[in-house]
Structure of Adenosylcobinamide kinase:
Amino acid sequence: MKRIILITGGQRSGKSSFAEKKAHELTTSPVYLATARIWDEEFRKRVERHQKNRGPEWTNIEEEKELSRHNVTGRVVVIDCVTLWCTNFFMEFDSNVASSLEAVKKEFDKFTQQDATFIFVTNEIGWGGVSENKLQRKFTDLQGWTNQYIASHADDVYLMASGIPVKIK
């Protein structure tokens, strides 16, 4: 039975750890779908550290944009993270928020047509005030609207604060 879970919060709030724990509660063979694009060596090391922290029971998939290319029917899949996924569209569409949002929504809808349990991890990046940087403001809009879209389709939404999950939907 299809189920969508959204886990949101600030940076280093415990979102990914909670998502992985939730996946383990639901299955012994979860899928980890990583949306990160490797930008530099520091980020590559971060990704490698995350991979090592997960055990051999995980199926690891790396996909920057086209999540729907992967058949996860009947599986529990952690999508980490929506922020990096949005960044990939934002870059492709030359920082055009409307085009990026349309593409993200279309891909989300296509991907979540599968009969699976989806655990999306995202960031609340707009809580820190309004940026002086125009590009950052545009991306914050995209991220916020994407989060709202996913949350509106989610069965459960958790807000992470200092490692503590608070169910808000």
About this structure: The chain has one domain: 3-167.
